[in-house]
Amino acid sequence: MFMKHYVLWSWPVWISHIVSFIFTLFVLIWLTDLCESLQIIPIRSALPFLLGLLLISSVNYLQLFDERSIALMCFLVALKQLFGMYHFEWQVVAGFNITLMLGIAAFFEPQYIWLSALFILGMIIFRVITRRIFLSVILAIMLILIMSASIFWLFDALPILIDYTNKFIEVSILDPISVHRSDIIFGVCFLILNLYSIFGYLVTNTHYKLNVRFNFTFVNWGFWISIIWVALFKGSFAQLIIIPIIFIILWSSLLFSTNHNKVTNILFLSIIIISIIYRVLWLLNF
After folding, report:
1. Which of 108, 138, 220, 242 is least enclosed, having the fewest CB within 10 Å?
2. pLDDT means per 10 residues in the chain (286 residues)?
3. Could you give the CA distance from residue 6 to residue 215 in angstroms, rounded to a whole number?
């Protein structure tokens, strides 16, 4: 991908670590504000920031600032627009913005274009999808295509664009990949925790407002769909793993902020312990 050869990624490693840390803090503060302003979490809480800092610090793949950081930021802006569709009246504008942000993210990581299905599911769950929104999505796609073709035509690089768009349909299901055993343990543990979170939330918090239940339903779907998405493009595991982690931050924050019992406390401690053990095992090259 041509974006990967941009001079920004040629910084010294120590500078990239510093920039990555600052970027991570910015993302987590922004994510916490998103949870509060759009009532993704029904009470004011610092959990998204604290859990996000713990999880992102545990994952070795996320320690450098590169093209995946830009793609992540575009994805988060699109996610904010999606959650905002339930609370505000600018659904048509949000549909346009979501498509545009995913299109920009796809120029840094082509696989992001496949997350369109996740946003369509979110619109269905939030009951906001209409013909006007569908039209705004089509217009955004046309804008992305026209602007891309124009830029590459000006630089006589249309063959590069055509070759690049072919990457959108590359699914590396059969490609071999070396995965750390610690990655597998980490993933299995969080799949189990997610299953418990669904059961625990549905059993104990049916009295919360409809939008909170919608949020939790979408976040859990988002977690599972993003896991499948990473599995399909497992050759890009290091670039894509951040998206399931974002949903882990959201569903765990929502669960822990709305449930107060011994089992939930044990679950909260288990996430901390799993993250620490995972980081140690990774450093030991396990």
Report:
1. 138
2. 52 78 88 83 83 86 80 91 78 88 86 88 85 83 75 63 59 57 84 79 66 83 90 80 90 80 81 88 81
3. 37
